[in-house]
Records
---
Amino acid sequence: MGARGLEAAVELAPELAPGEARESGTERGHADGQPVVILLGWAGCQDKYLAKYSTIYSQKGCTVIRYTAPWRMIFFSETFGIRSLQTPARRLLELLFDYTVENRPVLFHVFSNGGVMLYRYIIEVLHTHKLFKNLKVAGTIFDSAPGRRNLRGGLRALATVLVSMNVLLKYFLLLAFATTAVVLRILLYPLTRFIHESHYDALLKAPSRWPELYLYSQADAIIKASEVKHMADARQQLGVSVKAVDFSDSAHVSHMRSYPTYYSNLCTTFLSDCVRGSPC
């Protein structure tokens, strides 16, 4: 924890004994080494929950980096148009160099809008900073994301984060968030988007072309399934290899809990296909 000033957890892949081989193509790895998976948690996510997803990949011999952006940045900095998430986005990529895994294929596994807001800046950094332009991104998995300007869903997500906070402070923060979101991100968005485009609109036209897997549900009360499907369709029209899976009845960021084997198989198969360069 605390690498480069981030509350990030890094699990390095176990070293193979000389001559030892793993089971699958993904586990045998890329010529430059085993894949690196970067998990971007949902707002308010505790690392112990994100660590459960690490197991999917660490069991396959991957190095895993886990990070959840502070909820204040997600709900307030972004709403006010402050690009404070740019710094952790850059530092996360710098970790690849710190651990000398920068030559390995990278998979992003992104949860909810909290993870997407950070991922949006990671894409920007990947395409604008010389240091990162040679990184090999294999693909991205979106879990319960991305969602558009859904105020009700945002309030539900923030209320969940603030559940243990003083009641008066909790309702003050909810009111402040709702007021700011309505004014800056809804009513004035036709103007403010020229200053600070929403994460959803930025991803619609993102320059990345690596494969994407969308895991969503009609039963999600925070992120609308129709918005995820719209994003998947739009990306596919740009030539991105896209797969979308509707879990139908699982709750927000609860698809793995409801369907652990199916969820794990989807993730590992996608990673394996992307690393091999097959259609994902």
---
Amino acid sequence: MRLAIAGPARERERLLAALIELAPAGFEETEIEGSERVEFALYGAPGELPELAPGRATLGDVEVEVRCELVPSDWADRWRRFHRAVRVAGIHVRPPWEPRDRSARVDVEIDPGRAFGTGAHATTRLCLLLLSTWLQGGEGRERLTVCDVGCGSGVLALVARALGVERVLALDQDPQAVEATRANAQRNRLELAAIEQRDALRDELPGADLYLANLTGPVLQRLAPRLPRQSWVAAGGFLRSEEAVVADSFAPRIAAARMTEGEWCALLFAPPQSTAL
């Protein structure tokens, strides 16, 4: 099925913020030709899509038009185009149908299954950049502990392990994400210290030197006070319009690095007493 949500282009950022919470596995975005409207499309089997009735609805306090229709016969090709290979800072992340890049620092193969993505989304790319920046910013950081909170299909955790981090933990509240991360770890012959189902906002979190948190703005605000102040945090998944409130929630940490792509933003937060990136 294809669930289409159309709204005013001027409200694009508000719709994006609402959709990333509603559909973290991703969605298509197209401009409606000849109008000042934008359409977002989600694909899935009956019962897997968000429960939005066709017709007029409200999403993120924005009035939208919702349509539900059968997917076109070329859906398999569309799905493959959506999950494409990406190269960031010499890191190559690809779905199984893309060829290996032997010139890359690391090449990680990710089958998204029903979890979040293969690395092609802007928020994941930005977090990969922050991870690379953190590793290069201090000697011996490969010997520290990295925890991927909300690991999805395991992209960030597996890249961290492939880059040489000795102890990597992956957590997600979704059992399908835990299953996908385990399968992708086996696919890449990478061993993680732990792959566990945990709710980051309710369950006890393990200690780590760096937390990777590619979530959403509201979730990051709730997560921030639960993380040890002496730890680094690579936070992504929020819009540039949310940057100030996200940064405030991580105080007294300071933003040591900032990455943006389009309307998306990611910040690397350093412990209050840190003197080096």
---
Amino acid sequence: MSDGYALADARGQDVLAALPYDRWIAASGEVMAEFHRDPAGFRVRFPGNADFVVAAETLAVRCEPVPGTARADCDTLWHNAIVPLLDNHRGAVSLHGAACLMGDKAVGFVGASRQGKTTLAAACALAGHPFLAEDAIRLEGNAAPYRVLPARPLLRLFADSAARLLPDAGGAPEGTDKLDLAASHRLPHHAHPAGLRAIYLLGENREGPPAFTRLGQQAALAELMRHAFILDIEDKPRLAAHFDRLARLAGTVPMIRLDYPRRFDCLSNVVERLAEDAASR
């Protein structure tokens, strides 16, 4: 066993007979994950990295890494993708995003890939607002009061962001464009659940000063659906229950679109304005 899942011997990713029933596709068009039916239940394939086979009844998980995939990479896929998929399948709420502590409450950041969620969480931590999560916001319970569960004390930053925010962090390992940064006195991590104050949707407008716009409940629900983890999109009863849980979240926790310039020299001002807005919610 490795960190909650069984680790199989490395093997190649054979071509599967059936097409995937779902895919995660990045804005660049790259396929990040494929979802297949498997005799055991589900097979979640991360091309070039690993397959995770999930038993339908018990939800026990076996990881089949591709030769050359490091154990740490399997652990990252487990924590940042498989665990939140299983959470939502079991009836919890997990969102693709980052979170940090502001005051005594948590705020979450959601948005498309490479919109700056983890970079913003790192900037907040460096300004004294400890991070809680860097790729998956796992909520305790599925109704108010919501609390954010702390993730690993680790931030995975793109190398360009790490170089600007933490110049002494070093470069990314060969074969990856991300750097694993352990929590430290300078980059604090909050290790306890924290009440969820607000969720910030990172907007597309990158011009002008930071702008905060609260979304209505229906718009917030639509965004939550986009950023939620779903293991089986063909399981209609589970989808209906999942929709209800997200509707409760959208009706309880404010969602605010945050538009701001994606420039490193502006980040300190963005964090300051963000802290002011969060305190007002």
---
Amino acid sequence: MSVNELPALVDAEWLASTLPEGDIITIDTTVLSVARSGGGVEWRSGRESFEHEHIPGSRFADLLEAFSSPDAQLVFTRPDSHGFQTAARALGIGPDSRVVLYDNAINAFSARLWWLFRSFGHDRVAVLDGGLQAWKAAGHTLESGLAAPVDAGIFVAEPRDGFFVERADVLAVVNGELRGTLVCALPPENPEVDSGFRGRPGRIPGSVSVPAADMLSPQTGTLALTTQFDELADQDEPVITYCGGGISASLDAFALTLLGYRNVRVYDGSLNEWVLDVNAPLVVGL
């Protein structure tokens, strides 16, 4: 690995020792969720959380707006090339920028933006293991307030194939017309799956259950990958991850990439899209 490249995952000590070099851009990707009384969640910008506390020098990425499609029916739908390029440039990102992402929860939003960056041709991007909580636990300094203004970057989005699939691809796997394994990143007992607040309860048939949160150490919040993906023996086998809206699925996809799986894609619409088709099959229970 050259000095300009980054490992996919970095820890708080590495970041603290590297930040003084001045060429790392840290980005807070936090999105907040608020439970709705009738079921489901309402997503809110994490900007207020960012302004309360963040890693010094960080910038804030709005995954609800700037890094999602403004015209899509479903929340968190990935942006097109122009939309992603515009959002990345607004954060001062250029083709040589080294970017470290974090959030204040389980790093699913960081993994989502990591996946998007790579899908648009930028490999110099890492996730901070354990996110903001790990940074704080290590005793490193924080700052509050607005992000400092930055000059627009010159990032150029170069879309790559092999990062996302559409509903038709998932249905082909379910029907045995395409080879692949489906991985559900939601917990089996998750109310998003079982309550039917989307109108139809359940998960996609034939899915392997690997809840994103189960990949984290309960003590530190850092990734603790052990046997979670043992059912996926072949690292060249096509794998499709999904969840409610493509966020937890991105953390599963990130973890699979760390483990050396070479054919991983995220179902971007996930269950939010799947249930819109009344004929799309679902199963309830384990």
